[in-house]
Design goal:
165 residues; 3-stranded antiparallel sheet; 3 strands; elongated
């Protein structure tokens, strides 16, 4: 038991040192990123939950915006953005879907959404559609029943007294 306790303590100290070293390394990378003028965002390699939380903390202290992306625990990564280049909701959704952000494609989607909204607004201005089916069943089956068949059948109908009509 004392040996196990000593081993556990040693492992905990080693883990703590690794976390401190990782934090220092991330602080250096984030400071390099801040000093790089042409880089609006930086994507880091996939990392575990603890490392991601350390990186998020470092980014927050540095005044940056950070987000995690990826589906499962092994492939989650962090992207850090400079405040002046903060991502839009559409950009974040693209990263969440695993796609690369394309501003031209986003502009096209926005234009299509606006067009659809204008069409919907125009339909609302026209008012509701008249009630009833969109087409007349008589037109569909005219070749079977003819145009005067229903009227002629109604004129010749006689009550069947056996059924109480």
């Amino acid at each position: 038991a004392p040996e196990q306790a000593a081993r556990m303590k040693k492992l905990q100290e080693q883990e703590k040192r690794q976390k401190v070293e990782f934090r220092k390394r991330m602080e250096q990378e984030v400071s390099q990123f801040i000093q790089a003028t042409g880089e609006p965002r930086r994507r880091f390699q996939p990392m575990n939950k603890i490392e991601r939380s350390i990186l998020h903390d470092v980014a927050e202290v540095a005044g940056l915006t950070s987000f995690s992306f990826g589906d499962d625990e092994d492939s989650r990564y962090v992207m850090v953005f400079k405040k002046e280049f903060a991502p839009s909701d559409e950009e974040l959704e693209a990263y969440r879907r695993g796609e690369e952000w394309d501003p031209a494609r986003a502009e096209e989607r926005r234009r299509l959404r606006e067009l659809a909204a204008q069409q919907e607004e125009a339909e609302l201005e026209r008012g509701p559609a008249p009630p009833g089916p969109p087409n007349d069943y008589k037109d569909k089956y005219r070749h079977l029943i003819g145009s005067e068949a229903a009227k002629a059948a109604a004129r010749t109908m006689e009550a069947n007294k056996a059924y109480g009509c």
